[in-house]
Backbone:
DNA sequence: GGATTTATGGAGCGATGGCACCAAAAAAAA
DNA sequence: TTTTTTTTGGTGCCATCGCTCCATAAATCC
């Protein structure tokens, strides 16, 4: 196949890649998102990415390294709405209201796999995949910690009572979102998820 | 190895099994629960069950059939607390309060794998495992429907306002429990899960 | 005891999974 | 043009996976 000119970037020495790395990474991400790490085979990946095993190995190192890159890509692209909303300008309750609504909407997009790649990945796996399991658990912990931070700010801003259990509340919303992700993967409708989020907001502490 | 007398039951004709079927099934259930279907290999299973491939095949048919049996065993034994509480005698709010508390407790037992086998299994898998994915999704749907039924009864009993969205509320508690299961698999403490459940109960509809 | 029935141990097998290697191709640099 | 650097296609490889087969062992039935 004739190598295509990808773009006008300053190129290094050797033969140029015949594929768009970012695009291939995106294809891999969708596969991993939908099928999980163990459910996605090397052949599945090379087929979806449109590259040969050698190109795969050359460009991404290994299946495991690719998975890590795919996770990063997910967080920076598809999962960006989370931090965007969390760090947006609004009172704390509104922020979490938006998070629930966005989760319902994003988890049921027609153009992407259902649910959330972070929420449901690596919860069960072979002992040999411990590194990946820990990677996903760490990402879940980071999301939850970001929620807790925003809630702490809410307490400081007077949006929440001073005695609010911010860690507990973060764990609650975090759990609810993960449960919504499972629902989405089971085919739940956007309306159903919106309702779950709406009910979840009823647990918001009294005091404002 | 000399075959052991398992019990005094009326025995059929041929050679008696050298292992306790229920016990082997339990061992398999724990493995599946902890590692998932794809994360558990045939060798892992035969080793944990203490039987040879031929005995395995003879007694359980295939890995997939064993998984189905293991799921049944989970529901009938380990997951029995769910229906026990749901069908217990108490007002509706108390029932759901108990469910949340029991989920927190059961998901963090020292003598069993963390979390819930139903909640987190088969959310991501290879296309070839579609049957198992659907099986787990169906079980999740059944649990949720059982919750909805109990809530409907609550409305009939006057425990809940007549305009309560029982399906939505069931979906909410269902999602929360699944999120708690993910938390448990990530190593969350019993106290943390209890707190999540406590906060979740704050979403209980007003009116009693 | 012999026939029949069921379970066992152990070896092996076809398919798949995840790479690994290598000669050739296509670019920049000299 | 030659050299150097990087990517590619294709093939091969070794381990694992999930069985499968078969000769043998241990029970009941006649």
Residues:
């Amino acid at each position: 196949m004739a190598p295509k000119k990808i773009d006008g970037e300053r190129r290094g020495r050797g033969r140029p890649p015949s594929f768009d790395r970012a695009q291939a990474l995106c294809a891999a991400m969708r596969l991993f998102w939908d099928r999980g790490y163990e459910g996605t085979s090397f052949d599945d990946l090379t087929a979806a990415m449109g590259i040969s095993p050698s190109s795969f190995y050359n460009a991404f190192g290994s299946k495991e390294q690719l998975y890590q890159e795919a996770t990063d890509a997910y967080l920076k692209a598809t999962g960006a709405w989370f931090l965007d909303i969390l760090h947006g300008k609004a009172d704390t309750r509104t922020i979490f209201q938006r998070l629930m609504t966005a989760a319902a909407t994003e988890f049921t997009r027609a153009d992407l796999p259902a649910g959330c790649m972070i929420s449901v990945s690596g919860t069960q796996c072979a002992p040999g995949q411990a590194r990946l399991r820990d990677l996903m658990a760490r990402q879940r912990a980071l999301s939850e910690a970001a929620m807790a931070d925003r809630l702490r700010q809410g307490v400081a801003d007077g949006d929440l009572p001073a005695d609010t259990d911010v860690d507990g509340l973060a764990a609650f919303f975090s759990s609810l979102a993960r449960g919504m992700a499972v629902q989405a993967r089971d085919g739940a409708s956007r309306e159903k998820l919106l309702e779950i989020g709406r009910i979840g907001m009823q647990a918001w502490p009294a005091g404002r």
Residues 3, 11-16, 41-43, 53-54, 56-57, 62-63 of chain A lie near DNA strand C (CB under 10 Å from a C1'). Confidence is low (pLDDT under 50) at residues 1-8 of chain A. The radius of gyration of chain A is 20 Å. Chain A touches chain B through 52 residues (CB under 8 Å).
